[in-house]
Amino acid sequence: MEDTPIFPDPPxxxxxxxxxxIKPDAVHRADEVMEDIKSLEFSILNQRRLRLTPEQASDFYxxxxxxxxxxxxxxxxxxxxxxxxxxxxxxxxxxxxxxLGPTNAVRAKQEAPDSLRAKYGHDQTRNGLHGSDSYHTAExxxxxxxxxxxxxxxxHGQDATDYLQSKVNPVLTKALTHLSKQKPEDPLTWLAQWxxxxxxxxxxxxxxxx
Length: 210
Ligand code: ADP
Ligand code: MG
Hints:
The chain is 45% helix and 13% strand. It has helices at 30-39, 54-60, 70-77, 92-100, 105-111, 116-120, 135-145, 157-182, 187-197; strands at 15-22, 43-50, 82-90, 129-131.
C-alpha cells in the first residue's frame, strides 16, 4: 500500500534558463525592458542590479580578451549599473538571442528594426542587452552573476522523471500516507515537520562543542 505511487509522471518539458543583461546604456529603460520580457512570456527567475568592477567585466568577457574592441567593451560594461536577469522559457537561449537581433545595434536598426537591440541599443559596443549564446555559456554566466543561487542544470524529460521517482516520490508517498492516517489540523505544518524529522539526507552525526 505504501509503495503505490501517488504522483503521475511529470510532463516532458524543456524549459531552459538563459542570462540576460540590461547593459549600462539601457539601464535607465529597465522598466520598459522588463515589460517587454514579460509580454514575450519569459519567466524572470532571478534578478539583481549590480556594478561590475573592471576585473569582473574582463572575467565575464574573457573569451574576447585580446580583440581590438576588448578595452572599450570593458570600459562600457563597468561604466554604470547593469541588471542581470535569469530568464526561463522553452528554448529560452535561442529565442532570446533571436529577439536581441544583430550584435551591432546600428545594423540591428537597419536590418532588424523590430529587434530589442534596435530598440534599446546605440552602436557596436553599446548595444543595450546581452544574451547567453549556448547552454554551457548560460550556465556559466548564471553562476557568474548569481553565485549564491542554486545553479544545477534543470533536469529534462526522462531525467526529470527518474530524479523525482528516485529522490522525491518515495519519501513524499510515505509522508502523505502517514498524513492521511493522522489527519492533523494543520497538514502543511505537520508535513514540513515530518519531512524535517524523516529527512533521509539528515547528517548521521551531530557536531559537538569542543
Ligand atoms: P554578443 O553580445 O552578440 O554575443 P559578442 O559576444 O561577439 O556579441 O561580443 C560581446 C560584446 O562585445 C557585444 O555585445 C558588444 O557589446 C561588444 N562588441 C562585439 N563586437 C564588437 C565590435 N566589433 N566592436 C565593438 N564592440 C563589439
Ligand atoms: Mg557573445
